[in-house]
Every structure is written in structure tokens, then in C-alpha cells.
Write a structure and sequence with these properties.
- This protein is α+β, with helices and mostly antiparallel strands.
- It has one domain.
- The chain has 5 helices and 13 strands.
- The chain has helices at residues 17-23, 49-54, 88-102, 147-160, 217-233; strands spanning 6-11, 28-30, 36-38, 42-46, 56-58, 61-62, 82-85, 106-108, 133-139, 142-143, 165-166, 181-184, 210-214.
- The strands form 4 sheets. Strands 8, 9, 10, 11 and 12 form a 5-stranded antiparallel beta sheet that branches. The protein has a 4-stranded antiparallel beta sheet with strand order 7-4-1-13. It has a two-stranded antiparallel ribbon with strand order 2-3.
- The relative contact order is 0.17.
Amino acid sequence: MSEPQQIKVVDAFDLDDELRSLLKPGEMVRDAQGRRKRLPRYFYEIPTHDAAIQIRLTPHFGINEFILVDLKEAQRLQQFPRYIPCAVRLLAFFLEQFRTVAGASIHIAVNGGYRSPAHKMSINATEHMWGTAADIYRIGPNILKTQELIAKFNDVAEELSDDVTVMKYGHDTGISVDDHVHIDLGYVTVVPREISEDRMEVPQENRPRFAFEERRRRERRAPQIAVTANNKSE
């Protein structure tokens, strides 16, 4: 059996000044309708390109698929270690279900996963900045450039959950799409169980706060199964 995958969970207030200025943890930003949203504070730290490929969030989605960017992203954030909000695991879980119902592989576009607040496409608050949105350009052999295909897979996504939002086919930037399927789960933030929140929202000199989360489903379920078995035997 391979070693458990460990991902470093960081409080972005513990990162250096440049990274904090780019990630803007806890800051308020406005969406296209003027509503204020608080940016994520807790991130996964991805140390290397190889680690990004190896770390699996679900059976069919690696963390590398959510951090593919081009030169529109701030230069520092194109370098490793890379950072992505912890809520990305919820997005991966949903996309895994979406993949099953669609019956084909799902391909996320470059810049179609996480975008930092410093990204040139991050004009207003969008769910991409929370790690809870994906732009899908291909499903199986289908390139999503027609109204028929986009509408078809929008229906698939919406049938899975009332918490999912899609964009209809059209040519109005930010309102509709004409070359991909946009799926988002809203402005979701996650506080990992490994993190303690008993601290001020300022950098803590000489007191780095981070933890490692281990994701091994069988190992996590084993104690619960044992308890259930004991209950049945009583």
C-alpha cells in the first residue's frame, strides 16, 4: 500500500508579504452585482509540479487540473509552492459525480480552475477565486462550442444539485458562455479540521500555523466500522 497523501494546509496570514498581497486572505471584494464577499484564508500548499500531478482529490481529478494558468496569473503565483483554497476539494467531489453521470472524462480549461485575486481575469469577485468554479471545455470527445452541447451538459450539472450554478449559452462575458460549460458551487470557504482559529488575522512571527491533512478513506472509516460491528454484536 502506498504512503498516505499529505497536503500542507496553511493559514495565508502566515505567508510572506508578497503572497499575502496577491492572495488577499480575508479581504472583502465585490461581485458583478456589488455584493461583498470575503476571500478565502486557508489554502493547500502544493510544493512541486510533481506533487501537483500526484495528489489526487478524487479518483479522477488531480490537484494539478485546478491550478493550470497562463501568463494572466501573477508571476509569483505561477511558481511553486503554489496555493489553492481548501474548498477545491468540494469542487472536485462534485465534478467526480458529474463525470459519472456524463459518462465521459472531464477536461478543465487553462485558467478554468482557481484564479487568484491578482489574476488579470479577476476583475470582480468570481467563484474561481474561491476554488469552487470550473470551466470545462471538453467532455469525452465533445468540444463544447455549440449551444446544444452546452445546454445538454448544463442540464446534467443542474440535475445533480440545487447548489450548482451554470451559465447559459450566449456571448455576454460574465453572464453567458459560448465555448465551455461553467460550473460553480458559490462562494464557499472551508476551515480545515486541522486548523485552529484562535488567533488574530495578522501574521504570527515565529509562530507558523500549519497542519498536514491525510486523506485515506479506508483508514478513516476503519474505526467507525469497528464501532458499528461492536454495536451490532451487543
